[in-house]
Amino acid sequence: MEQLTQMIAKYSPEPEFLLLIIFLFSLGKSVIFVSSLLPPASVTLMLGIVVGKPVLADGHVWVAITLGALLGSVLSFHCGAWLQRRESGNWLPARYLGAMHKAKSALQKNGIPLLFMSRFLAVMRYTVPLVAGMIALPRKQVYCASALSAGVWAVALMSVGQLF
Fold first, then answer.
1. Within 13 Å and on the Cβ side, how many CA atoms surround 125?
2. What is d(CA 21, CA 114) in angstroms, rounded to the nearest whole number?
3. Does pTM surpass 0.85?
4. What is the CA radius of gyration of the chain?
5. What is the pLDDT along the chain (164 residues), one digit of tens a residue?
6. What is each CA distance from 35 to 66, 96, 98, 138, 156, in whole angstroms?
């Protein structure tokens, strides 16, 4: 974390670089295989928002966070779809099949609300779009819910960042 702080401090006069960092962290926190390697989203994104406040327009920060989060959810969704096509469902251990059927049922009944709410819960942020891909939830539904939740998530993070 200290290395990240030093890197942001060193390059903070470059708004484009700072926007790239914000975008990449937003993307990384929304992708299943990357998120677990990064520090908590609230810490990393808040750091970028606070450091960029003097040099970045709020609209640019919002776009960077929203696009990163949306792209991450879409990648997780397509990763789930790819896993399902590749393995035809046989790759999942038998003990998880019950949970997978429950998730499938819940997502089919309440797909958009669940996809929207999952953005605000750390692990769910990338697992729900992954499962949505695995159960072949309609792409349009996933994209719309992900875009809406990413935009609201960006506003929420930026609102908290304004307090500092």
1. 27
2. 28
3. no
4. 17
5. 566 566 666 655 677 887 888 888 888 878 876 666 666 656 666 666 666 677 788 898 899 999 999 999 999 999 989 988 876 556 666 676 677 677 777 777 888 888 899 888 877 888 889 888 988 889 999 999 999 999 999 998 888 766 66
6. 16, 22, 26, 24, 19
Please give the structure tokens belonging to residue 78: 């397509």
Q: Supply the DSSP string of 37-88, one letter for each residue.
A: TSPPHHHHHHHHHHHHTTTS-HHHHHHHHHHHHHHHHHHHHHHHHHHHHHHT
As a whole number of angstroms, the distance between CA 58 and CA 15 comes to: 12
The closest of 52, 57, 1 to 22, measured between CA atoms, is 52
Q: How far is CA 153 from CA 3, 53, 112, 121, 133, in A?
A: 26, 18, 15, 11, 21
Cβ pair 133, 104 in contact under 8 A: no
